[in-house]
Write a structure and sequence with these properties.
With 332 residues, this protein is mainly α. It has three domains: 114 residues, no CATH class; 55 residues; 108 residues, no CATH class. The protein contains 14 helices and no strands.
């Protein structure tokens, strides 16, 4: 599971500042008048306005119990309600009616199937050049916000990113394996043989960083380049694989070290024509993954400021759809 803190998925902040309360959760006079006309009780009024500001801030509806108490107290005070008033929609039917009214006012579409389709298309396209699951989720969020869809739950996007990333990478692996051929595969499997005495393999030697170049080491560097070229026609093997993806795969390989028992298992599976057993996705800081999309995606941990997700388009009332939330939610 990709850590939600590494993504731009909107959440309520753990600590809500006075500035954020004023800028993001203060209802306008027009919103207050609209909500008073649509409700019958003070509890209904508080619930409707709290949900309105939450959708404008997050891009989806939290449960009323998930709205932080400072936010609820601020909305209550701005509406001129007493401290004893608790937000309540009375019934599930009324709550759903309120959500429909808010979506219409803000201009957000609730269509889970269409939203998932759009997110899948965005993730599948991004996975051709990106490997970090957080990056893929951020790309999907950007497209969903741009299309003004109510956001799916975080776990929905996380599971989608993991599934599509695995499918795209499997396609790359199969294409590479087909180009390597039997002779190249034998050479690659030979690299994984671990010497029992040194507990090192030729693969470890290939991963060893070259020493600082100098005239005295010129011969050493030439020999190292020849050894690398002797592995095979890697340019042909990696044909069609984007450089960024090749770098991610190299990072994953560089973060691993085979023990003798692992070497034997890998060689046995390779000789039998089976793919290597999948391993965990390494820490992106070690694997060369980007913590943020290089193409201007939103930063994690609510770094979008008081208006939330910086890529969120303005709603009908001028508020941004996007923000920060306390934790992941599961919803399709």
């Amino acid at each position: 599971m990709a850590s939600i803190e590494r993504t731009a998925y909107p959440r309520f902040r753990k600590v809500v500042s006075a500035r954020e309360l004023l800028e993001a959760f203060t209802p306008t006079p027009e919103e207050t008048a609209w909500a008073r006309e649509a409700t019958r009780t003070e509890a209904n009024l508080l619930a409707l306005v709290a949900l309105l500001k939450a959708l404008q801030r997050l891009g989806y509806f939290p449960r009323l119990a998930e709205v932080p108490s400072p936010v609820m107290a601020h909305v209550r005070q701005r509406l001129g309600l007493g401290d004893e008033v608790a937000a309540d929609a009375d019934s599930a039917r009324t709550l759903e009616r309120y959500r429909g009214m808010i979506r219409e006012r803000v201009g957000v579409t609730y269509d889970p199937e269409a939203a998932r389709t759009l997110a899948e298309e965005a993730i599948r396209a991004a996975a051709q050049a990106k490997d970090n699951p957080a990056d893929l989720i951020n790309v999907a969020l950007e497209e969903l916000v741009k299309a003004r869809y109510e956001l799916p739950g975080y776990t929905t996007l996380d599971e989608m990113a993991a599934r599509l990333r695995a499918a795209v990478n499997s396609g790359f692996f199969e294409a590479i394996e087909g180009r390597v051929g039997p002779a190249g595969k034998a050479v690659l499997l030979g690299l994984l043989h671990v010497d029992a005495s040194t507990r090192r393999s030729r693969f470890d030697e290939l991963k060893r960083p070259a020493r600082r170049p100098s005239l005295s080491r010129l011969k050493e560097h030439v020999e190292r380049l020849r050894a690398l070229d002797a592995v095979g026609d890697t340019a042909t093997w990696l044909s069609g694989v984007p450089p960024a993806q090749a770098a991610h795969f190299a990072g994953e390989a560089g973060a691993r070290r085979l023990r003798p028992a692992q070497s034997r298992r890998v060689q046995t599976r390779g000789a039998a024509g089976l793919p290597p057993a999948p391993g965990p996705h390494p820490d992106p800081r070690r694997a060369g993954g980007d913590a943020l999309p290089p193409d201007g995606g939103a930063p994690p941990e609510g770094a979008g400021g008081a208006c939330g997700h910086p890529g969120a388009p303005p709603g009908r009332d001028g508020a941004a759809v996007g923000g920060v939330r306390a934790g992941p939610r599961r919803r399709t």
